[in-house]
Amino acid sequence: xxxxxxxxxxxxxxxxxxxxxxxxxxxxxxxxxxxxxxxxxxxxxxxxxxxxxxxxxxxxxxxxxxxxxxxxxxxxxxxxxxxxxxxxxxxxxxxxxxxxxxxxxxxxxxxxxxxxxxxxxxxxxxxxxxxxxxxxxxxxxxx
Length: 143
Fold this sequence. Notes:
The structure is a single chain. The protein is mostly helical. Helices cover 79% and strands 0% of the residues. The chain contains 5 helices and no strands. Helix 1 (2-28) crosses helix 3 (69-82), helix 1 (2-28) runs parallel beside helix 5 (120-139) and helix 4 runs antiparallel to helix 5. The protein starts with a helix and ends with a helix.
């Protein structure tokens, strides 16, 4: 049973990191504030590291992580619709803050089901949640 819980935490960690990378990629062409672009680039690189760590954890269980093309397309479409009329830095910062908050919420849900304290999956989830909280604080200056 513990393996199932660990795998769920790793899958959610990968999903959260992947969505962040994809969201940042979708926004980058619309950003005109250099400081904001630099911040998101740094965040993207760190999320990519989390994505790789979660994939490595899943490989330990013999699982090959898959990228959801439908999910990626839906995220891209939502971002395009949400920025169609407003590409201001405060609006995009707010979108990223909301995304980070959702990531924390979803990770907390699966992490609470994994009773294996101190496990690699829980440590990684905790690390990415802390990073997302830091992101929220850094993004507030762009509101």
